[in-house]
Amino acid sequence: MNRGILCPGYQRPLRWSQKYEKSAQGTSSPCVLATPNTSTPVSQCLSPSGCLGQLAPSRTAYAFLEGNGYETSKELTQPSGATEQAAETVPLACPSVNLRTAERLSPLAFRESVHFVQCYSGVLARVLSIYDGLSSPIRAAALSTWRRSSLLFSAFKFFVGLYRAGSDSNSPLRLAVDEARLEILNQLSANLSSVTDQVPAQNLDVLLVINMFGLSSSWYDLSDLGLEHYTVAATVVREGHVITPRNRRFFEEFLVYWWMMLSFACSPDSCRTSKPPTLSHRSSTEPRMPHPLTGVSPESQVLLGMVARLVLSQRRMVLEQDTTTADAVQRSLANVEMARHLEHELLSLQLPPADLILDPGDPHTSVLDLLNIARAYRESGLLLLYHAHPDLLTDQTHCSAPLHATKSAANALEPRRCLSLAFDILHLLGQISPTSGTRTIEAILLVIVSGELSLRADFALAPTDHATIIAISEPHSHATHHDNSEAGIRQAVLQARADVIARFDRIQAILPFNTIRRMMSLVFETWRLMDSGFNVSWVDLLIRNKWEFLMI
């Protein structure tokens, strides 16, 4: 509907308004482009000689979002002499402007509009995907539908404003972000009331925005988990609503990542998300395009989420309830059985071979990076499980190298073996490119690892223990770079802490949000208490402080 209301955050023609800017600020703000870690001033991004060559997504990008209006680059460029197409549906300032009655634009103005949307989609592809480039389905969907979807255009404005506000703690953009958020909520409310009656392309737009907007709720408000949006998205995906099988798989994996993060954020009693999303069947021999959030192994994230739900539920019971009641004892026994089941699932989890994984086309994120982050998720699930259930380490039938140890030595080696596993996870992450987009899903792994990096003397690996012998015999093990004396292990822990901090800094450079700062505070407080002699877990601190937020 054309209400003739100007959008307060922007001015025409597609220029960032100075209304909310500081008067002393004379330089252009950065604009994220197709390649991660690349910044370009908005003025350059809007120039005709800027980045037109990078705009058209390849057909590979539609391995997930196929059909339903998500067409290729013919939507992105204006044929010579086709002034009608240039004027057809160019979003000018905000969704209140009717896209089909917008004034005619010259070819130059059209190209500038495309550049502006390119900057928007660059932010989305950077913060909501583990890879960017021409094969990013988020970038492809954004660039091919921006002219007809005012909802998606509102999402662009919200995410860019939120990103810029997060990058600058003194940013005056909060009001503009608030207004963009209200635009999205109003449009989602209107669209969801008739989602089953809409054409498939509109359903896909609505579902994409619900997932992106809801998953990022904690970026706007730490206490907002986006539960209502998750429930709606899960319902729409489950009921179908003319979603193709391939698109359904894409959104199922999106929900898997979201569900995993909710497992760390809310108690089972207050969250109606106890069961993970069901994944559609996929042949083990079928070539696969990596998902923007689950990568090459959504199964590893499902298992990590199940471990998190089990561990947090168990710790809440210990901290908040009487554990001597019959009901508590029965629940504890059930938790042990579930822990054994999850351990078996994690140890038997098979990752797809590298030759079946399609290259996403991101020069910063290789297929090897995607495999390593999947392995790190698998091992982090084991680490979190073993920390909460150290008795599992004494059962040889549920252990495998490099975690296997003789039963006589296992009882005394449980915390030490967890430390060795933490070193291995850091080593896996260290093999990933420093500029890889997988950084965006790495923070939760660093929190899990940090819980084992204690400087207490009784955590030092003894030079003759069986776990160390096995660990140093593994060529991939982090422990091979350090001696196994008490002083050597202490130095290794200090180095591991430095690695965790450095990796958090790299993550915050790409995700400048309060969620990352809260996770770093959690890690530092855990280390402080452990160094003071307290036998404390970061999970306990999370529960006691009532910190419920999505760790992304």
Automatic annotation (TrEMBL):
GO terms for cellular component: nucleus. The keyword Nucleus applies. Signal peptide: none annotated. It is found in: Nucleus. GO terms for molecular function: DNA-binding transcription factor activity; transcription cis-regulatory region binding. Keywords: Nucleus. InterPro entries: Fun_TF (IPR021858). GO terms for biological process: positive regulation of transcription by RNA polymerase II. Pfam families: Fungal_trans_2. Residues 271-282 have a biased composition (Polar residues). Residues 271-295 are annotated as: Disordered. The keyword Nucleus applies. This is Transcription factor domain-containing protein. It comes from Cladophialophora carrionii CBS 160.54.
